[in-house]
Amino acid sequence: METQEIERILKEALNLDEVYVQGENAHYGVIAVSDQFEGLSKVKQQQMIYAPLLNHISSNEIHALSIRTYTVEKWKRERLLNHPA
């Protein structure tokens, strides 16, 4: 499965401000940015990402998936801390 396909599925299913997918050989990492994660537990946030990908996980097209979720504000801080100008 291509990373662009995973990005497309997530963008269509969820109201994400940004989404980034990296990986290959059925092992992927997702960074998802949206204010809809605000106030949700990490488990609920991950469930939101898993739900639209469940068929691909069940078919083993996606074997491993690491997920990092951020609100827009937390993503801005994360980028400033890890990518100083």
UniProtKB/TrEMBL annotation:
<dbReference type="InterPro" id="IPR036065">
    <property type="entry name" value="BolA-like_sf"/>
</dbReference>
<dbReference type="InterPro" id="IPR050961">
    <property type="entry name" value="BolA/IbaG_stress_morph_reg"/>
</dbReference>
<protein>
    <submittedName>
        <fullName>BolA superfamily transcriptional regulator</fullName>
    </submittedName>
</protein>
<dbReference type="Pfam" id="PF01722">
    <property type="entry name" value="BolA"/>
</dbReference>
<comment type="similarity">
    <text>Belongs to the BolA/IbaG family.</text>
</comment>
<dbReference type="InterPro" id="IPR002634">
    <property type="entry name" value="BolA"/>
</dbReference>
